[in-house]
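Throughout our pipeline, every protein is held as a single compact record rather than as scattered files. The remainder of this section carries one protein's record, kept here as part of the documentation.

===
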Amino acid sequence: MSEPIKAPGAPPQIQLDIDDVTAQGAFTNLVLLNHNDSEFVLDFAYVQPTSNRARVRARILATPRHAKQLLRALELNIRRYEARYGSIPEPEAGPPGPPPS
C-alpha cells in the first residue's frame, strides 16, 4: 500500500491512541506554570472550593517552542469559541497568590 500524497511542508497526520481512563479526562480549575531555559512545566490541579490545598491531576512538560504553539492554538480556539457562543467573561481578580508587597 502506498503512502498518501501530501503537500510539501504539510504536517504529518498523526493518529492518537487513548486508553479509557485518560479518555474520561480530569477536571481542573487551576494551572501553575513554571519554566527554565529549556522547558515549560504546566501543573493542572483541582482545588475544592472550601480548601486551600490543590491536588495536581496532570503535569505537562513542553519545550518553549511547543508552549508557544500551544498558546497560539488556545488563542485561535478561544476566538472560534467566542464567535460561536459569545464572549467568555474575564476573572474579576488577579491570579491567586500572595498579595503584592
